[in-house]
Structures are given as C-alpha cells and as structure tokens.
Amino acid sequence: MFSWFLVTPLKLMLLGLIAILGFTIVRYSWVAFAGETERGRFLRALLTTIAAVVLVIVSNHLLLFWAAWVSVSLCLHRLILFYPERPRAQLAAHKKFLLARFSELLLGIAFLLLFSQFNTAIISELVAKVPAAGSGLSLSIAAVLLALVAMIKCAQLPMHGWLIQVVEAPTPVSALLHAGIVNLGGILLLLFAPVLAASPLACWLLVILAGISTTIAGLVSTTRISIKVKLAWSTSSQMGLMLVEIALGLYEMALLHLFAHSFYKSYSFLNSGNTVNHYLAAKLAGAPKPRVWHWSLALALSLAMLAVAQWQFAVMNSFAATVLVWFALAALIVPSVTRWDIASLPRIGITLAVAAGLLTLYSFAKHHLAVLMGLDTPLNPLADCLVALLFFSLFALSIALQYWPHVRWVKSLFIWLNAGAYLDEWATRLTLKLWPSTSLIELQQAQLQINTESKS
Length: 456
Hints:
Pfam families: Proton_antipo_M. By secondary structure, the protein is an all-alpha fold. It contains 21 helices and no strands.
C-alpha cells in the first residue's frame, strides 16, 4: 500500500512550491472574503483543491494518480462556480467540465495502455522499464494521449477559452489556477518524461501545436487592455512554451520555467488591483517609449553577454533556448538604454550587472535541476530550429504591432489577434451545439428578461 505513494527530490520541490502558493492564496482569501457570508464554503473548496493537487504529486499508482487528477478538476469546478449567477462563469465552467472529462478519458486510456504493456501500475517501476522497452505502438499511442491531456490541462489553443473566461471567478481562484493547476500538464509530462521521449510523434505534436499556441497567445496578450484577461492569455502562451521545452528534452529549463511562472502569476493576480496605479505612475513619470534602435542596442548587449557566458561556462545546449534567453535579456536591458541623460551610464551598468547576475543564477539553477531530473534526452536539431524560428516570429511580429500599427497587413493582424483569432467563438458554438448547457441557457434568458424589464 505504501508503494502507492512516493516522494522524490523533484516531488519534494513541487510540494514546497504548492505549500508556499497555498499558504499565500489562503491567507489572501481569508482577508479578501472578510465579511462574506460564504467565506467558509470558499475556503473549504480552496483547501480541498490544494489537497487534491498534493495527492497528484505524491501518487505513485496509476489508479490513485487518475483519481486525484479527476478530484482536482471537480474541486476546481466548485471554485469557478462560486458566483453561479454570472453567465461567463457558467460558460467557462461548462466548457472546462467537458474538456476535463474528455482529458480524463484520454488519461485513463493512456494508463491502461501503459499497464498492459509493462504489467505494473506502480509509476516508478513503469517509468524505469520504458528505456528498455523501445518504442512500440502501445507506448507511442500512450505518449500521444499524454501529450493531448497535457495540452488540454495547459489550455492550449483552441481549447483555451475557459481559461480566459474564468477570470469571472474570484481573484484567489485565478491565482490558484494560473499559478498552480494549469502547471499540472507540464508536471504530468515531467513525471512521465521517458514515455514521452520514446515517441517522436508525441514530441513533434507538442512542438508544433504548443509552439503555434505559444506564438498566437503571446501576440493576442499584447492586444488586451483588461489586466486579468491579459494575464490569462499570457498563461496560455507560457504553458505552451513549457510544453515545447519538455518536448525538446529541456526538462531542467521547463522545471525552472514552471517555478518562475508560478511565483510570477500568483503575485500578478493577487496584486492586480494595484496594476492600474503602477501604470498611471509610469505615465506620470513620462517614461519614453523605446525605439527600434534602442532594441537593436539592447539585443547587441545581451548577445555579447550570452557569448561570454557560453565561452566561459558553455551554459547553452539548444539554439531555441539561446534565442529565448537572448530576447529575455534584451527586454530587461532596453529600458535602461531608452533614456539618455547624465545617469545613463550608471543605469546601464547596474542593469548589465543585474542581467549578468540573473544569467549566472539561471546557469546555476539549470545545472542543478538537470542533476535533479536525472534524464538525458538527445536534442532534435530540426525541432530545435523550428522552435527558434517561432521565437523570432513572435518577437518580430510584436515589434511590428508596436511600431508599425498603420501598415495594412499589421492592421489586419491586429484585428485578427484582437478577436482572439476567432478560435474561442468556434469552440464555444461547437461545444454548446454538441452538449448544450440547460442552466446556462436559463441563466442567459433570465438575464435577458431582466435587461428588457430595466429598459422598459
């Protein structure tokens, strides 16, 4: 019975992350719902959801893992519908419920295939047997199903609409969802990484679909004004990036990405009320908008830093990862080179020092997380170059949207992105046509009647 549970160094780190996020979100909820008559019900649902996530992490049996996975979704459903009178919350919950049931079916089939091939339901034993098993048909199908389950859980396009609409739920729910629960797709693939690595088809599926989702969702987020909606689109993009890193075999980078994204998104949602004040303060400060030559200078400086780091420590083993870190460093440096005055040189020096410190920290964490994962999957050069090309496209198109908005093709692109690529509309219509929600229809009719009566 004790073999059904397992705590490894990797799982211990994930449990520490859950503990920090869980405590912060519960503490925030306790204060935010002060005076709310339903505070107890909300906190019970929140704690139950966190407990279900913990059970997913420590599970070492396929059946227990699947049951815990289902429990997370059912508990989250209660949190999303905490305010059931909101039509958008109803729609998000309905779409999420159907997608969750479909993904759980796929996960159950994948687990049955793995059990039938390896004749064990203990996950640690099963994963240890994968390298010696080669790449059979059952294993490949199971890997593809796991990849599909991860993409659904990580809200990849076109299955992303519920994540955008779930901002109707209370802020702590958004923080828990975006900082923790959507990460379960990546955690699933990290725990079953040998299974995924044994199937080139599953890896290519992730690279192409999650890579496209990363690019489109990242561009759409730049067109959004609503703070929480912007963060939601950003989550879809970041989750796609994490899945791409896993598909390339960059497990340590994906794990580092998972931790950084969790802390950033929990802070962003819980602090979303102050974002407007920060935006107004920046406007009053008169911060100039960086020009193209500012970006060129920042890219040159960050490239020089990367070249020195690679020469001294050989930290980069992937072209796509190098491009990603290059653009990230440039985004950090560009504000310091935008304004030229008497304090420019000290400001640039401090920024470069901070960038060098972050690059050193990244290299240190990447090395130790690679040792922690203990997996060495050969990098696919073609997939690596394709992902790097997607990163270049994302950067170039975002620059075009920012600096040349009046060009005809950029206008058309903005309209398409501002509509969310029209993907969610099609997904919503198809969902309600195949499986209509009676409660949602009744709620919309009641809302329409109230609006009609108020106008008359």
